[in-house]
Design brief:
Layout lengths: L4 H19 L26 H28 L11 H33 L7 H10 L8 H28 L25 H11 L10
Helix pairs in contact: 1-2, 1-3, 2-5, 3-5, 4-5
Length: 220
């Protein structure tokens, strides 16, 4: 998982902070704050080794980043760009699309490499990109977008969604403990399966028996 740290930092600093908050702002998209998604509060949990704490902190960062990116893409998919006629609007979309497309080409190769490690070696379940694509098409995801831009956003959503699902497999096996603070934060869907901090002993026993709190158990 730590092999992907550069990827997450790039996604966070570029697409989430710079490109979305700056390039998409003229289209009145909701501004989503990183601090409400990236929650790194599990390093203070007692009776955990430093390595376990490091895993929990990184899981908080990676999963929060993935969830935030998914929500931002959802916001973009709902924009009716036909309402915006300013000369600055089209260049913003073209630039955002170009950078996003270049990133996706690189990560298509990188994600296949991670799949070999995460899914095949560790036995974790992998979400089918084909099924995600079909699901989004059935939902008419981004139907208000132009054909070219819609396809780029669809490809981005497929990658972002599968990334979030794959990270769920890792966090559910490595650090399935609930965050300390709840008010004002946005959690990933699988957070509901996590144990409270005072149930650490019970959690360890469960993981020893089942390997994960995920609904999709590992296949060793």
């Amino acid at each position: 998982m730590y092999l992907s740290v550069v990827e997450f930092v790039f996604v966070h600093l570029s697409f989430i902070i710079l490109f979305y908050n700056r390039m998409m702002r003229p289209f009145n998209v909701p501004i989503l704050k990183s601090k409400n998604y990236i929650i790194m509060d599990r390093g203070s949990i007692r009776n955990m080794t430093w390595f376990d704490k490091l895993n929990c902190q990184f899981c908080g960062y990676a999963n929060g980043t993935a969830k935030l990116w998914n929500d931002q893409l959802d916001n973009i998919s709902r924009i009716d760009f036909s309402r915006y006629r300013s000369p600055l609007h089209k260049p913003a979309v073209v630039l955002y699309s170009s950078i996003l497309l270049a990133f996706l080409i690189f990560n298509f190769i990188f994600s296949k490499f991670l799949y070999l490690i995460i899914a095949l070696i560790l036995g974790y379940s992998r979400v089918s990109t084909v099924k995600v694509w079909r699901m989004l098409k059935e939902m008419k995801y981004g139907e208000k977008l132009s054909p070219v831009f819609r396809r780029i956003i669809l490809l981005s959503k497929v990658y972002a969604y599968t990334l979030m699902c794959n990270l769920e497999q890792i966090e559910s096996a490595w650090c399935p403990l609930k965050h300390l603070n709840n008010e004002g934060y946005v959690f990933t869907p699988h957070h509901k399966n996590f144990y409270e901090r005072d149930k650490l002993k019970e959690l360890v026993e469960y993981l020893e028996q089942y390997g994960s709190v995920s609904d999709r158990k590992p296949e060793y």
